Structure formats: C-alpha cells, structure tokens
Amino acid sequence: MDTKDPPETKDRQQKPVEKSPLPQDGRKVSRRLFMQIAAAAGGAATISAVLPQGIGRLEAADPPRAIVKPTPPELFYQSGSNLEMRWEAMYNRGTLVPTEMFFVRNNSAAVPRIDPAAWRLRVEGSGLSRPGEFSYEALLAMPSISMIKALECAGNGRNFFEVSHGKKIPGTPWNLGGIGVAEWTGVPLREVLERAGVKPTAREVMAEGLDEKKVSRPIPIDKAMEKETLLVYAMNGQPLLPDHGFPLRLFVPGWVGIANIKWVGRLEVSEQPLYSEYNTKRYVFIGPDYPPQPPALGPMLTTQKVKSAFELPWNGTIAAGRRLLRGRSWSGEGRITRVEVSLDGGQTWQPARLREPNQEQAWVRWDLDWEARPGIHRLQARATDNRGNRQPDKVPFNEEGYAYWAVVTHTITAT
Ligand SMILES: Nc1nc2c(c(=O)[nH]1)N[C@H]1C(S)=C(S)[C@@H](COP(=O)(O)O)O[C@H]1N2
Ligand SMILES: [Mo]
Fold first, then answer.
1. Selecting from 3.30.43.10, 3.10.20.310, 3.90.420.10, 3.40.50.300, what CATH number does the domain 22-53+65-280 have?
2. What is the full DSSP assignment across 363-405?
3. Measured CA distances, 16 to 19, 33, 238, 342 (Å)
4. Is the CB of 108 within 6 Å of ligand 1?
C-alpha cells in the first residue's frame, strides 16, 4: 500500500486545530474536500485529485472493473464482484473497519466511473414543489454530520441456512463477513428534500444508482426525513472510494445493505408508493412463513436483526493454549446489552466482557479468556440488544436466504 500522506493530513499538521475557524464536526471534513475540489478544478484528472492516494482509485486509463480496490486473499474471500471480509483479520483491531478491508457488494458487473465535476444529483417527482439538481460542490458545502454505523448485506449469514435447513441457497455465499463498521459523513437527506420543497403529501423516496443495473430501492418518507438518514460522501474521513459509491451514496442506519444505494444520480420523491426489482422480487421475504404483498412477492426487508461473529478463521486451526477469544455483536435496531458465549456447542454459556465503545447500530467488541485444549471446539455466541431481541436457535426459512440471525456454530481446531 502507498503510505504517502494524503495532502489534507499535511495541512492539518501545519495548522494547529485551535487556530482553525471551522467547527470540530463534519463540516470541517466537508470544507477540506471542498478545497481539494477547488484545487482540482480545471485539471483533467479530477477523480484522482479528490480521492485518497494509495488505494482503490479508478484511473482514467483503467478498463471496466468489477472491484477497484486491491483484494488481498488474507483480507477477503472474493465471489465475483463481491468481497467478504475475513473475520480473523479484525483480531487486534479497533471498532472501525479500515476502508481497504471493508466488504463490497456490487450487483452490476462494473464499478461506474463518475467525474464529480460533471456529476449532478437530480431531485424530482410528484412529492416536490421545487425539483432541481445539486452539484458535488454544493452538497459538500451544506451542513453535514459524521456517525459511526454498521453497513451489512441482507444476505450476510446466508450459508448457514444450508446447515439449519439443509438447502443450499444461490446468491453471494456469505458466512458472516458481509458487514463492516465505518465512520460515515454526509448531508442529511432531509436537508436536500427540504431545499427541493418536499410536500406534506410526499410518501416515498427512491434513490437510483448510476451503475449499469441502475440499482434503486425506495424508503418511506418518515425514514427519509430522519436525522441520521444521510447522503454520504466520506467514509472513515476520506472521500468515498469508487467501490463504496463515489461520489455519493445513501445511508440508512440499521437497514439492510441494499437500502444504501451507491453512486446515486437521482432521487425520486413520490406521493405514491414506489416499486423496483429491489423491493418486489429481491430483498423481500419469500417462503411459507411470509405471505405475498402484491406487487411484492413478500414483506420488504428493512432493519437488520442481531448477529455475532468470532474473530477467527472459518474451520481453521489455531495454536492450543491460553488466549483471548474475541468477537463482535451488532443490531440494526439498537445497542447490544449482553453477549453469552458457549465453548461446548451450546451446553453451557458464560457472559463475554463488552468493550467500549458500544453505540447503537454499530457493533460492540467483546472478549473472553479461553484455554483452548487440543482438539475440535464448537464455539457459539448469542447476543441480546436493548430492544429485547436475542439471537434465536433457529430462524424461519426464506428462499433468498436473508436475515439469518440465529446462533451460529463456529468450529475451530486447536493443535
Ligand atoms: N447502486 C448500487 N447500490 C448498491 C448496490 C449495488 O449493487 N448498486 N449494492 C447494495 C448492497 S446489496 C449492499 S450490501 C451495499 C454494499 O455496500 P458496500 O459495497 O459499500 O459495502 O450496497 C448497496 N448499494
Ligand atoms: Mo446486500
């Protein structure tokens, strides 16, 4: 990896923070980005100029790419245009997943190449009295917030339906690495909608991606107007990488990954319910326990439930002996209040120690002292959130394999 300091880091070192006239919040990030763009204006390589140096840039001469950032096998399992994070790579790390380790889920074959100078966010539809456009610069100059939240694919955990229900489900074969936690910075969607004259009769907002499949999915207006529903332009303090939606993505905390539309080019605000493939045929629950909801084949997926993962390789081998067993648990509905761990396949349970920070809709890190004797171990973790959701032993089947939030058995061999 390129270790050169990005220009904004040097800036910060030269200017003591107390002399800065800017407030200590997301607006400072926005201002810095604004300066980078201003500096890049007129240059041909605009995209390169605003993206961080080193990882994951899409250069003008590059051919179409399914994934742009490096995909080292010690960090990821790759499946087509998707990258699953390896949990063992998170051992010894903090709350945030570094952007270069963050999972990727792309429905289209190639990451779109977008020039932020020419790009516009179009905002239109029957629910607005002042439809219009926003440039990248205009969005970066608006009030913004930063928040630490999880982003998780609806199909995270899909593989475990094969263990629990004996059916192999097609689709991205996630174990539990289709999740990450990052700091997201952006403009509240509400600000944009208000400037566009959102009507009291507006009902739904559909963000549309500029990828080849124009991936789009609506959210209800109440969700769109929530303080933390953001149009995100920065991740972990840097402009979004192409893989993660540069220049702009939607972020709906706690909701399934597909709600967080990347490469947004258009927002439709409607007085009528809106439909796309992604809330009628896919990302809905289909199965005997889920009645159809025409025109949708089943109930639409919204918030994510509670899950847990160990920071260990799958079916791997570790050295026998005393160790700190580590993992993380998360909930799209709130904050984790309790994590229990079983070292014997669910016969006995003991509480894990929760570590700070423990914020809602992110994850909590936890640990436990463990004397790993030589042999095969069947580890389980079971978390509870402050809404009273506790990971069950089994979840009902659905054909697309979404929302697998039952307790998972993690088998590991100590030698
Ligand atoms: N435009 C667009 N947005 C998208 C997708 C996509 O394929 N195209 N994938 C969605 C899915 S299924 C997930 S899980 C998240 C993944 O975000 P990430 O790749 O930044 O981790 O983006 C969502 N937003
Ligand atoms: Mo997803």
1. 3.90.420.10
2. EEEEEEEEEE-SEEEEEEEEEEETTS-B--S-----TT-----
3. 6, 18, 20, 49
4. yes
Report whether 259 contacts 252 (CB < 8 A). Answer: yes
Q: Measuring from atom 2 of ligand 1, which residue has the nearest CA? A: 262
Distance 369 CA to ligand 2 centre (A): 34
Q: Tell me which residue has its CA closest to atom 20 in ligand 1.
A: 244
Residue 184 Cβ contacting ligand 1 at under 6 Å: no
Q: Is the distance from the beta carbon of residue 107 to the nearest atom of ligand 1 less than 6 Å?
A: yes
214 CA closest ligand 1 atom index: 1
Residue 251, ligand 1, Cβ within 6 A: no
Supply the residue whose CA is at minimum distance from atom 16 of ligand 1. 105
Pocket test for ligand 1, best of 108, 184, 206, 262 (most atoms within 8 A of CB): 262
Q: How do strand 249-251 and strand 230-235 relate by DSSP bridges?
A: antiparallel
Question: Residues whose CB is under 5 A from ligand 2 (ion)?
Answer: 105, 153, 257-258
Question: Quick check: helix, strand or coil at residue 192?
Answer: helix
Give CA–CA dist 243/321, Å, rounded.
40
Rounded to the nearest angstrom, the distance between the alpha carbon of 216 and the centre of ligand 2 is 12
Secondary structure (3-state) at 415: coil
Domain 307-414 bears CATH identifier 2.60.40.650: yes
Q: Are 258 and 245 in contact (CB under 8 A)?
A: no
The domain ranges of the chain are 22-53+65-280, 307-414
For 189-240, write each residue's pLDDT tens digit.
999 999 999 999 999 999 999 999 999 999 999 999 999 999 999 999 999 9
Spatial neighbors of 302 by CB under 8 A, at least 6 apart, are 255, 256, 259
Answer left, alpha or beta for residue 401, where phi above 0 means left and psi between -120 and 50 means alpha: left
- How buried is 190 (Cβ within 10 angstroms: 0-12 exposed, 13-18 middle, 19+ buried)? middle
Tens of pLDDT, residue by residue over 50-107, are 555 556 888 878 889 999 999 999 999 999 999 999 999 999 999 999 999 999 999 9
Phi then psi dihedrals of residue 391, to 5 deg: -55, 125
